[in-house]
Amino acid sequence: MRYGQFCPIAKASEVLCERWTMLILRELLIGSTRYNELQKAMSKISPTLLSKRLNELEQANLLIKKKIPGGRSHEYFLTQAGKDLGPIVMQLGEWGMQWARKQMDLDDQDIELLMWDIRRNIKSDKIPGRHAVLKFHFTDLDEHANWWIVVKDKDCDLCTDDPCLDVDLYFTTDVATLINVWMGDCQLHQSISKGNLKILGDKGMKNTIKDWFGLSLMSPHGKAFSSPT
Predict the structure, then answer these.
(1) What is the pTM of this model?
(2) Sheet arrangement for strand 169-173
């Protein structure tokens, strides 16, 4: 996409305004480095298009690609120019929180992004014992209605197949409710009081849930991401 103008806004738009590019930058700024991590956070992008966008960002000197030792895959890291986009991406998200989210519909309720985002923001060091199995059941889904997050020390695995482990905490809700909680539109206790969200299981984990269950980095109560060093 070329505008044929010397204006810096036009030149920046040529690099940044292709479809999915800003979301790839979002993920790299948050700390994703591997191809499969990018795919999990953007399940609706095709592998071909994701590879194309990564190559374009590399050609624009916004990221560098490094081969993982002992393997054939690569990791992706932002250059200084890419890191300097952090405040811009954050401001775009803040604008979107205030003005654009009113236009959401059912197609925007991306369950893969929601669960991947929850998984990577679990504060495992705050979970009693640092080991836990969380099960999420979505009452309004036919496919992928059940999700598990398995926490082992600093590792958090996200599963759509039953890991056959004892569950410590059960979450039962619908997708919209958990998105609203995650984005800070509704507080956890409010959704529970209204009966839109049920949490059953280990009392210790329930009592400390505010300590280890993070919120979206874009929520008013979340922590804005910063460029990785």
Answers:
(1) 0.90
(2) 155-159, 146-152, 131-138, 169-173, 198-201
